[in-house]
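Please describe the entry underneath.
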Amino acid sequence: MNSLIPADQILAVFAALFAIAWFGFWAESKPWGKTLTGAIWAILLSILLSNLGIMPQSSPAYDVVFSYFVPMLLPLFLIHADVRRILAESGRVGLGFILACFGTVMGVLVGASLLDLGEFESILAGMFTATYTGGSANFAAVMQSTGFDNSSMIAAATAVDNLLGILFLVVIILMPASRFFMQRYVQRNYFSDQEQSLEQGENQVGGLSLAAALTFAMLVVAVSDLTVYLLNLLALGIDFSLLRYLFITLYSIIPATLMPVQMKKLNGGQSMGFVLALVFFATIAAGANVATLLAHAPILLVFVFIVLLVHWLVVFIGGLLLNRLLKKQALKLSLPELIIASNAAVLGATTAPALAVARGWGTLVTPGILVGVAGYIVGTPLGLLIYSWW
């Protein structure tokens, strides 16, 4: 579809994405907009502009965001990461991720049992199991492993996955704003480290500190990519590319833990991370083609809605029931922990930490990456298992 902003005008597309991010920050600062958060406003505005033909739904600029902005976002926000607290939080998020994977499998089985998906039912069941236990990389892997090449069905499935995945993201981002939900889970503080850092340094940004923060982020990504490249050269039969974000996390938290005094001088990094997070959300929302979805995929729309509904029930209602069984308060799951785990399963290792950044849950950024990487590992085998069994 042609758009007012041509897809090949890279700087113009970037201008639109950063303008959407700016609008998200501005709307969040107003009484009428703070409930939805800047991430939600960025998502909604991007969907509107792309489907009205103002922004393109695909562009080389979006590839730049996915390939370069997203990896940089993580070290920028992990500049002041406290690895001791990260380790304390990761276990509970991992437990929530197990719930999320179970919820996805149950949702696929319920949806495929209730609906007739036609001759491609087993493949679709496997593909959506895979994509909702680790993201779209698993979706493509199952598609290639099964030799599925029906272009019209692939396009419809991709459209449904993109749009309902984004709507699901909107739902879980809104949940913490509800007192009804928050009061039913254990309460924990994920803001203190980040807020203290912002108050003490992030408002004192200079050219020197900002250049240092950006250099650090680029260096971390470059060394991580070099590590992946060298490991792949060893030809161990493993695609280490899936572990890219794990290496980025590792190389970010090592200096943040060993050199905390020096890292505190990198003011401005977290603020830049917030900006890139909203640009990222605007980018993924721009690809949601509502017209294609409504025209070609009504049965898939219902199927994926059932999958995500059952997933949501298992994660958030199941999480409440699990908390009642757990005796120790330290083991009980909070709502933010379940949200990050669910996000990592449904949308992958990139959106989970981005959501943590957007919500200000500083200590949940790294756990989100870790369970997202776990999703890359288990998602494809699980999807192929469901495909073969069904």
